[in-house]
């Protein structure tokens, strides 16, 4: 039975209609209706139902093969729309259809019945049946036939299918929701679970799985098929059966081994059968591999059988991952034929087919199942025999246990009651102090030596905030209260009964309201002292602290503890009161300070320093303990008092009280308040307010919008155009004076120079340009009325056309195999800068389906026409009126060219509290650089920004000082600094040193252990720290606000669906892969949203998220680590855009920054610090702006990456010929336009400084390009690489053939091989030999040379390579060079280290210290491990690059390890230079990559500095994701740069010739249409003339009655009667009986026009049918009602001919209307046919250049003359005299074949090329 799409769709529609009708009638289905419902089979294989089908115009976008289903699809959508109560419900139904298309592959009934029958044969008749993915109920039907009374629970997530299922089985429990919704009480409830379960890499939200300790269960939640198995096993009882049909991925995937182990942990494998791929062909029109797996649950299972062990393992069969069970048991595979092919996703797979159809498959399945069940099914376990025995065993077990315990108790000796009461639970007990720690705390003694006795397990440390449990209360002892004089008093006589004492104790220990004064420093967990009766007091802690009060929880303490904590509380309260007073009133609290000193001195005299080991743990029990520990600082090994004991630290004591000049007054105001405070300035100065304002004119300006004066740096900054307009509007509505006018004038004068229209570059589709302009251009282009609209939410354009003409349907039209893209469709693509993804058929597969491939020729033609539309827009703009151009340029200037970045001058800042002396002692920092001051001032003014300072220019100090200043000035309440793990300790130390009295919280690794993390987060929340410091990794562990996550992810989810709709509306063919990918992303986002919703719902008070912590500014050191932020784009084929899904790390950062921005209502809220903010491409700028400037992007109408790229980027599309001569399309954002405005937008919030700008005392970089000739083996391999690139035959390289996936990445593989070959041949194959001229040998020689040269100074060297890194036990380049250094050059092995050997931070630091000391002289590492966080520059003299990294930032990071401040040896002994040697093998990609990197770095630097000479830049076209293009790769490997130029030119020639071919192909089509139109026009004109003549004749002859009505003068031959009845009857008889044999036969006349009849034959349903038609003959034969007369009305029959003549004017008008169209389109077609391909001259020029290059290459290849040879020898000798000693093979002169290298290389790089040192 073949899959009949039309019949299936009709069955589905009728089933859905029936279900809706039953819903409406609220009744059960009749037998006929049940039959209709049962025919529903889902929409698998019917992808076309997702196409638009709202009206007939949508049919244009449908593929030809699907058009027959268009009417039924329209009917389906109408049906659903009519029965949807809301748009939301309709959307859910459509989602249901979408899901069904992807997953509805319903199981043939024969298979479900086979399973049910065999289980029934073994008496497995489930009374409680679970169907977790029921579909239309095939399994339910099969199993209920065996047991009608079965209690069935069926889940079906698909809404429509669930509705139909409920009507099919009204007496069963049908749930239209996901299986994950099943409730916990159903665990262990069902006898069996059977299903054909869904499959795919989509996650499932189930908290029990995601939080499970089992790896298998956690992994299962990430893939729905794995989840169903484990969840199904949970749901069945002990002995129950799980039988699921699933995808082969469950058993085959090596990633599922943990899941399969988990499946068999408490279940036996009963059967595993591989089903043929064509199982679903007849029912779903698709082929997919599947397995039937049957398990039997057994919770007491002990071990795996041999077959079960095989089941858990993945092996390889014919190179394909296959479950080992099927490798060993091939008899378990049902098939009649098998072959190695690919699965539906293009991956290699074994494809099994069965020629017996569903019935044949079912027959073989029965046999296998019967065999497996007979061997493995444990019926006693299923029927309950074993289960009952176990139950009895479990019931007996407790009794036995009790008896044993009783016996044990009886034999133990009775304890005698001690005379002394046992000790009360002390605070030490409460916090789990060990005996040793308690001894130290009580005596202040040193810890004893550890004994070798085994430690007893410590009890769990209870929380201070736990409410005492009942058990604790029972065992607790009476509280001992104290007085000041007599800490312990008896209080009761000995006669007091034990019961009374216990009662009083329990009463006093109960929590109660805190009646004392609740002070501002009291918080959750604060220790407090509460007065009791008389002189007694109690110690306890506070809980549930609010502004209205708190709860006091007493603590059981002994005498010593009470007194010590009471003394501590008095110190803490004295400190807190003093600090709060001075901070609030800025006044010295001398009395309070004296009180603090007394209480502190008393505590230290009695108990020692606060930071003494005996006290630290005690103090840390208090919520403020860490703050109190900071009351002491360590100096020279002693603890000394903090400054607050001597003078105020909350404000500057030596405060300025008088200034001499207004400038000094302004500086004082800015220092203290960060703004212009005229009252404060007036109090300091002898000048009046007005005098101050006059004197400071030009330095301060009045801002009427804020109602105060602002410093110039703040006022004339940012979007000055917008600010000026708002002030102008304010002045128009409010009275104003000269100060407002001055401010306005200053803003207007500061506005950037307007960019003229001629300077601007435009892209079609820039979102800021009004759509009316696009409409006008499109109307001009197509010569018809076009209307264009833009949807901001969908970031898409809608195009409406009133009438299509030849320009749309022909000139700008591309006809693909399946679909035609007319001018309107191409205009839509042009507006969003995409190209249609066209496919064509190259034949049929065995099932009759089209074999589709990309239509490269069609794509190229479409791209050419889209380019014509896009380029035409720029030309059209330039032809508009000057007024129009001026308005457009003004719009642009107001939108983008409006930013001013002032020269921030921070020299006035004095930074109160900054301890420069301490910084000098610890870090050698004597003062703050001017560059640092300027950057800090910018950050204070803007509230954040980007600190883009080069490595080694002091970003750490900027962070610390800026954070402290923001806190001091109230610009931030609680700033946070995050940095790399390797740097964060140094950052914290720098902050502590700079601000010794600051309250900072530095997160240690211990703080972030799971048991301490929550407490640490609460610490951040509950404390007012000056700064919180942690690493990037630790920051990632902070829970982000679920509400914020929900909003961002929901927006992302919305855009996923919108993108699909956009693609579909563009007419883009939505492949099954695209649809599944989008659906997968949607489901996974939905699962994330569910997880977040669950987190919100189940959130408890002790989980603190980022929002609750109160952090309001983040300083992100090395911010480029967070650049991998998610974004959506429709440019899915563009190279170099990075991962659209982004990383969780970057997403967490976005959540945090959005939380801050939401709180402040402004952009920024964070400071990014990095020397490589743009590491590779300018596209990274968008992500920076997405983080920091969302509101400004919104103002610029940029709400997506595509909108940003439309304004600032140009996409280059290259068409290259592949080795199979197919055209390959390569796209990338290569060109950037409007670069100065982009730079201004960046620099407005950025402080960019190079080391030279800052004046950092560091050595210069001396780059040396060390050229190496290829070894013979490399020469041979280069030839192989070129053959591989040409043929694609990977066996040439000595490896297996490329897979389909690898075939697509062939050039990336070729590029990777070339990189490895250049580094060392042994990276390709260990069997290659070492060579004296390979890169390792050259590098070792150079290292040894530098080693000897700087041996006395112990100079050190860095060696970088990202390839061939150190791996223990394997050959690698690092170890090879080390071997050469040790064996050949005698360098001690201990002086050579690899950074990869350092397994922890301690080892890493030790190596760095050894480098600085000169104990380690050479260190090897990769960019990621050695390129950052390594300050080992002290003795560095050379950096060696064995390979060239992909990104400019990587090269800068590498060089920065040695070219850095603090390099003493290079400064004193190497001429203040560090040699940076780049090793480049000739005929490899080394030099090319290095050149590209330098050019790209130049562009990035120019953009950052604002020194762009041009408005457009070209980034180049090579990246690590796609490698190089074919032609350039071939040319570079050939070693001839002329060949490279020739390859580039030939590529352009080939692309242009292909474009010309497509142009002339389209032109020939237009020529044919022109000829047809011309002929038709002439024919139509002839018809008009002749028809008009006939009508004039008719009018001349016609007779009328008195009213002017035309009379019917019909006469029939052979009939004298003229009445209508007779005439009509006669005509009807002729219509019935006449037979003319296809000839025209005269039967009468009307006004001289003959009346004719003609008999016409046709076939209808296989039967010949004859029909007579009637005509009136003039110049043409005219008809009315298509020549058929009325058979029921004789009068109407006679009027047929008069009506036909009266229709002549309408016919003439129709011809004239068609002629208007032809006359309009013919000139366009003539223009097209007569048009010349515009790029002919360009092609000729390119061809002549190719020819010239070919001649040059031929001359170079010609044999040299003898004189030339002699000359060359002389040159060689000259070179040698300048080279290192003989044998070193190096020169300092550029080689001859490098003459065509980049100018940049020649000017900036010293070229070194080894030559043969032997003289002739």
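-> sequence recovered:
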């Amino acid at each position: 039975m073949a899959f009949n799409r039309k019949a299936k769709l009709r069955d589905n529609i009728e089933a859905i209609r029936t279900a809706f009708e039953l819903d409406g009638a609220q009744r059960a289905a009749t037998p006929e209706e049940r039959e209709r419902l049962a025919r529903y089979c889902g929409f698998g294989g019917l992808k076309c139902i997702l196409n638009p089908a709202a009206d007939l115009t949508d049919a244009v976008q449908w593929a030809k093969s699907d058009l027959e289903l268009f009417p039924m699809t329209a009917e389906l959508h109408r049906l659903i729309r009519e029965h949807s109560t809301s748009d939301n419900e309709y959307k859910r139904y459509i989602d249901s259809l979408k899901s069904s298309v992807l997953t509805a592959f319903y199981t043939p009934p024969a298979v479900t019945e086979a399973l049910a029958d065999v289980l029934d044969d073994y008496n497995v008749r489930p009374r409680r049946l679970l169907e977790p993915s029921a579909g239309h109920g095939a399994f339910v039907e099969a199993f209920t036939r065996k047991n009608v009374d079965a209690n069935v629970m069926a889940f079906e997530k698909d809404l429509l299918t669930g509705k139909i299922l409920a009507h099919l089985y009204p007496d069963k429990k049908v749930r239209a929701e996901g299986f994950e919704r099943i409730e916990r009480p159903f665990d262990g409830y069902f006898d069996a679970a059977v299903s054909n379960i869904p499959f795919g890499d989509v996650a499932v939200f189930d908290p029990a799985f995601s939080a499970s300790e089992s790896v298998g269960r956690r992994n299962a939640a990430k893939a729905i098929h794995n989840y169903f198995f484990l969840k199904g096993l949970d749901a069945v009882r002990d002995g129950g059966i799980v039988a699921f049909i699933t995808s082969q991925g469950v058993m085959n995937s090596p990633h599922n081994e943990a899941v399969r182990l988990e499946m068999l942990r408490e279940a036996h494998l009963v059967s595993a059968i591989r089903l043929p791929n064509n199982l679903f062909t007849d029912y779903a029109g698709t082929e997919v591999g599947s397995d039937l797996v049957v398990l039997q649950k057994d919770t007491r299972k002990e071990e795996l059988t041999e077959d079960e062990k095989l089941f858990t393992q993945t092996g390889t069969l014919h190179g394909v991952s296959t479950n080992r069970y099927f490798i060993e048991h091939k008899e378990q595979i049902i098939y009649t034929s098998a072959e190695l092919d690919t699965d539906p996703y293009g991956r290699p797979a074994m494809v099994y087919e069965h020629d017996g159809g569903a019935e044949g498959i079912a027959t073989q399945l029965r046999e296998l199942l019967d065999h497996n069940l007979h061997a493995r099914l444990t019926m006693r376990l299923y029927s309950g025999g074993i289960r009952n025995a176990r139950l009895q065993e479990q019931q007996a077990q407790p009794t036995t246990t009790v008896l044993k315990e009783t016996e044990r108790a009886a034999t133990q000796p009775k304890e005698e009651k001690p005379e002394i009461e046992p000790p009360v639970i002390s605070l030490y007990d409460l916090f789990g102090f060990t005996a040793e720690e308690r001894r130290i705390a009580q005596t202040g003694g040193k810890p004893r030596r550890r004994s070798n006795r085994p430690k007893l397990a410590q009890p769990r440390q209870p929380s201070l905030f736990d409410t005492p449990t009942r058990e604790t209360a029972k065992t607790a002892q009476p509280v001992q209260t104290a007085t000041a004089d007599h800490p312990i008093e008896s209080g009761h006589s000995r006669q007091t009964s034990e019961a009374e004492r216990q009662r009083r104790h329990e009463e006093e220990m109960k929590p109660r309201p805190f009646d004392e004064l609740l002070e501002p420093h009291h918080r959750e967990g604060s220790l407090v002292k509460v007065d009791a009766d008389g002189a007694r007091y109690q110690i306890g802690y506070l809980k549930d602290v609010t502004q209205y009060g708190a709860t006091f929880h007493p603590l059981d303490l002994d005498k010593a503890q009470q007194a010590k904590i009471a003394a501590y509380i008095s110190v803490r309260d004295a400190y807190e009161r003093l600090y709060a007073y001075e901070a609030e009133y800025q006044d010295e609290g001398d009395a309070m300070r004296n009180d603090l000193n007394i209480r502190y001195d008393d505590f230290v005299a009695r108990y020692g320093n606060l930071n003494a080991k005996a006290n630290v743990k005690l103090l840390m029990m208090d919520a403020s303990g860490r703050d109190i520990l900071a009351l002491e600082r360590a100096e020279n090994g002693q603890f000394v008092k903090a400054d607050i004991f001597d003078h105020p630290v909350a404000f500057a004591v030596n405060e300025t009280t008088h200034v001499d000049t207004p400038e000094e007054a302004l500086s004082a105001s800015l220092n203290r308040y960060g703004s212009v405070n005229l009252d404060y300035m007036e109090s300091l100065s002898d000048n009046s307010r007005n005098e101050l304002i006059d004197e400071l004119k030009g330095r301060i300006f009045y801002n009427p919008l804020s109602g105060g004066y602002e410093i110039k740096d703040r006022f004339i900054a940012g979007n000055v155009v917008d600010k000026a307009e708002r002030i102008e509007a304010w002045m128009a509505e409010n009275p104003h004076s000269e100060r407002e006018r001055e401010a306005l004038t200053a803003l207007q004068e500061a506005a950037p120079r307007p960019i003229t229209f001629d300077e601007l570059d435009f892209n079609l589709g820039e979102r800021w340009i009004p759509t009316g302009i696009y409409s006008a251009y499109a109307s001009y282009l197509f010569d018809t009325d076009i209307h264009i609209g833009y949807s901001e939410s969908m970031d898409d354009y809608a195009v409406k056309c009133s009438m299509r003409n030849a320009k749309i349907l022909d000139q700008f039209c591309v006809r693909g195999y399946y679909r035609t893209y007319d001018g309107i469709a191409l205009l839509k693509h042009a507006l969003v800068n995409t190209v249609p993804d066209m496919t064509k058929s190259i034949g049929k597969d065995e099932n009759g389906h089209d074999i589709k491939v990309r239509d490269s020729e069609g794509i190229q033609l479409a791209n050419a026409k889209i380019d014509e539309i896009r380029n035409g827009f720029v030309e059209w703009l330039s032809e508009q009126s000057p007024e129009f151009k001026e308005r457009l340029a003004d719009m642009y200037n107001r939108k983008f060219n409006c930013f001013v970045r002032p020269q921030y001058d921070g020299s006035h800042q004095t930074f109160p509290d900054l301890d420069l002396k301490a910084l000098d002692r610890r870090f050698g920092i004597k003062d703050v650089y001017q560059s640092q001051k300027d950057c800090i001032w910018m950050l204070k003014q803007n509230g954040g920004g980007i600190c883009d300072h080069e490595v080694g220019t002091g970003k750490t100090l900027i962070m610390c000082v800026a954070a402290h200043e923001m806190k001091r000035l109230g610009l931030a309440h609680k700033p946070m600094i995050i940095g790399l793990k390797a740097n964060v300790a140094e950052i914290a130390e720098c902050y502590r040193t700079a601000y010794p009295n600051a309250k900072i919280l530095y997160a240690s690794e211990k703080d972030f252990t799971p048991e301490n993390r929550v407490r640490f987060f609460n610490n951040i929340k509950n404390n007012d720290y000056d700064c919180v410091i942690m690493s990037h990794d630790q920051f990632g562990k902070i829970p982000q606000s679920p509400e914020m996550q929900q909003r961002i992810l929901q927006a992302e989810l919305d855009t996923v669906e919108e993108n699909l709709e956009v693609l579909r509306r563009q007419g883009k063919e939505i492949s099954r892969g695209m649809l599944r990918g989008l659906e997968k992303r949607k489901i996974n986002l939905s699962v994330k949203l569910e997880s977040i919703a669950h987190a919100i719902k189940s959130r408890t008070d002790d989980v603190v998220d980022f929002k609750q912590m109160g952090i309001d500014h983040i300083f992100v050191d090395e911010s480029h680590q967070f650049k991998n932020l998610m974004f959506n784009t429709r440019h899915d084929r563009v190279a170099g855009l990075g991962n659209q899904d982004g990383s969780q790390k970057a997403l967490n950062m976005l959540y945090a920054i959005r939380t801050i921005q939401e709180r402040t209502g402004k952009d920024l809220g964070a400071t990014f610090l990095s020397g490589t903010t743009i590491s590779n491409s300018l596209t990274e700028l968008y992500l920076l702006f997405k983080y920091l400037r969302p509101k400004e992007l919104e103002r610029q109408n940029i709400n997506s990456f595509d909108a940003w790229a439309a304004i600032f980027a140009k996409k280059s599309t290259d068409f290259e010929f592949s080795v199979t001569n197919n055209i390959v399309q390569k796209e990338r954002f290569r060109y950037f336009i409007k670069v100065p405005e982009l730079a201004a937008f960046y620099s407005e919030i950025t402080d960019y400084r190079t080391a030279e700008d800052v004046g950092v005392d560091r050595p210069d970089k001396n780059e040396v390009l060390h050229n190496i000739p290829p070894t013979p083996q490399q020469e041979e391999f280069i030839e192989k690489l070129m053959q591989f690139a040409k043929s694609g035959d990977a066996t040439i390289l000595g490896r297996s053939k490329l897979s389909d996936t690898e075939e697509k990445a062939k050039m990336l593989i070729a590029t990777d091989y070339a990189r490895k070959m250049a580094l060392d041949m042994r990276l390709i194959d260990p069997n290659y030999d070492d060579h004296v001229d390979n890169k390792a040998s050259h590098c070792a020689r150079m290292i040894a040379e530098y080693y000897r040269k700087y041996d006395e100074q112990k100079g050190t060297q860095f060696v970088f390579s990202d390839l061939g890194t150190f791996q223990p036990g394997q050959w690698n380049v690092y170890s090879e060079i080390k071997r050469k250094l040790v064996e050949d050059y005698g360098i001690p092995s201990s002086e050579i280290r690899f950074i990869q050997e350092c397994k922890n931070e301690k080892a890493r630091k030790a190596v760095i210290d050894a480098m600085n000391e000169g104990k380690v002289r050479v260190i090897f590492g990769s960019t990621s491990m050695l390129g950052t966080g390594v300050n080992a520059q002290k003795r560095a003299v050379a950096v060696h690059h064995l390979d060239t990294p992909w990104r400019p930032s990587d090269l800068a990071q590498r060089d920065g390890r040695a070219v850095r401040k603090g390099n003493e040896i290079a400064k004193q002994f190497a001429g203040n230079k560090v040699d940076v040697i780049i090793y480049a093998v000739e005929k490899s990609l080394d030099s090319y990559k290095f050149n590209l990197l330098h050019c790209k770095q130049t562009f990035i630097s120019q953009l950052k500095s604002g020194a762009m000479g041009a408005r457009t830049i070209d980034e180049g076209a090579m990246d690590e994701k796609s490698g190089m293009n074919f032609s350039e790769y071939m040319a570079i490997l050939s070693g001839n740069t002329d060949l490279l130029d020739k390859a580039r030119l030939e590529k352009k020639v080939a692309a242009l010739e292909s474009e010309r071919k497509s142009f002339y192909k389209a032109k020939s089509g237009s020529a044919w249409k022109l000829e047809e139109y011309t002929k038709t026009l002439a024919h139509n004109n002839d018809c008009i003339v002749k028809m008009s003549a006939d009508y004039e004749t008719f009018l001349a002859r016609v007779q009328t009655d008195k009213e002017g009505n035309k009379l019917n003068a019909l006469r029939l031959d052979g009939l004298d009667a003229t009445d209508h009845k007779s005439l009509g009857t006669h005509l009807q008889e002729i219509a019935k009986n006449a037979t003319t044999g296809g000839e025209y036969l005269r039967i009468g006349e009307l006004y001289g026009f003959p009346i004719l009849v003609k008999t016409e034959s046709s076939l209808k349903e296989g039967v010949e049918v004859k029909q007579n038609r009637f005509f009136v003959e003039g110049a043409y034969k005219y008809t009315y009602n298509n020549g058929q007369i009325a058979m029921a009305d004789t009068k109407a029959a006679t009027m047929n001919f008069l009506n036909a003549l009266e229709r002549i004017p309408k016919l003439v008008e129709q011809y004239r209307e068609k002629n208007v169209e032809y006359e309009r389109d013919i000139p366009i077609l003539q223009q097209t046919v007569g048009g010349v391909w515009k790029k002919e001259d360009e092609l000729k020029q390119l061809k002549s250049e190719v020819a010239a290059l070919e001649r040059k290459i031929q001359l170079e290849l010609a044999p040299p003359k003898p004189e030339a040879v002699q000359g060359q020898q002389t040159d060689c000798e000259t070179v040698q005299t300048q080279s290192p000693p003989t044998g070193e093979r190096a020169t300092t002169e550029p080689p001859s074949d490098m003459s065509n290298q980049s100018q940049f290389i020649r000017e900036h790089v010293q070229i070194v090329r080894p030559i043969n040192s032997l003289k002739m």
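The chain has a mean pLDDT of 78.
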